[in-house]
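Sorry, explain these C-alpha cells?

***
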Amino acid sequence: MRLVPRLTASVVYFPAGARHARLRQQWLRVLQFLPAIALLTLLPAVAQPVSVQALIRSGQAALDARQFDRAAADFEQAFRLAPDNLEVNRGLVLAYLQAGRFAEAAGAGRAAVTHWPQDAQLQHWLGLVYFKQGRNAEALQTLQGSEKLEGQDFGIHFDIALVLLSQSQYSPAADELEKAVALDRSNALAHVLLGRAYQNSNRTLQAIEQFQTALRVDPSIPLGHYHLGFAYASLGRNAEAIAEYEKEVARRPEDGEVLYRLGDCLLETGDWKEAIARLQRATELASQNADAFYDLGKALLLEGDVGGSISALRRAIELKPTDPSPHFQLARALEKAGQVEEARQERQRFAELKKAQPQSGGMATGRVQ
C-alpha cells in the first residue's frame, strides 16, 4: 500500500518505523520550498502600484469625456504620489475648475502658481477660477499675468475679454478680441463677441462686419442673426433688421427676447398687425419684459384696441415704474377711453419721471414716445 503523509496545520506525520525514513527525508526537502511556492501563488493577487503617468492619462481621458469628478479623483491620487509634478498640478486645477469645485481649484491653483510662477497655463486656469467666483479684479490681474508669459494664446485673450465684457469695458475687450481673432479666425463666437464689443462702443459698422463674418464661419452660431439684426436696427435699417430677426426666430421660436426685437422693428415700420402678433407672443414667453409690454400697448393703441393698450401699458409700468414712456402712452390711451382725470395724472407722472431721468451720452438709449 502507498503511504501518503497526513498534513495537519504545519506538522507532517508519517507512520512510525525505520522503513519510512527515506520518505521522511524526501518530504522534508519539499517543505523547504513551500514558502517560496506559496509566495509565487499569491503574487498575482497583489495589487500593483499605479504609476503617476497612468493616472495622468486616466485623468486626461476623464476630462475629455467630461467626467470631471472622476478626473479630479485621478489627479488627486497622482498629486499624493507626485506633488511636485507640473502636469499633475495643471490637471488637478483644471479638473476642479471643470467640476465646479471652485474653492478647491483656487487653493490648488494658488499653491501651484507659487511653485511655478512662470507657468502661463496655471495662471490662466487660476484666472478663470477667480472669474467663476465673481472675483473679477483678481481674475483680470491673473489672466493679464498669464498673457505676459504667453502672448500668442487665443484662449488667454478670449478669457480676458470675457472678464472685461462682464464689466462693460467694451473698448479694452475689443482690443483683446482683436488679438484673439488674429490668432484664430475660424472661431465664430470670438467674432460675435468682438461685434458686441464694437456695437457697445459706437462702432456699429465694424460690428456688422464681425457678425457677418461669424455667420460665414458658422451659419448656425447661436444668436448670430439676432446680433446682426440688432446692429442694423440701431442704424435704422429696419428692413435688414427684420430679415435677420426672422431668421433667428425660425431657429429659436420660443425666445421671447428675439420676438420682442422683431416686433419692435415691425412697429417702427408701421406694420402694426404683424408687430402685435409678435409682441403678444413675446409677452407670453418673457412675462417680465417691460419693454415688450410697452411696445404691445403702443401697437394696440395704434390699432385702435384701447382696452388692450391700457392693460399692456399698466403691466409695463408695474414692471418698470421709473420708465417715463409707458406713462405718456397710457395718458393717450386713457384720453381715448374718456378717462380724462386719470390721463392728466399719467401725463404729470410722465413729466416728473422725464425730469428725473439722467441725460445719457454715447449710444441712444431713450425712446421716441
Notes: Strands lie at 6-8, 11-13. The chain has a mean pLDDT of 88. The chain has 19 helices and two strands.
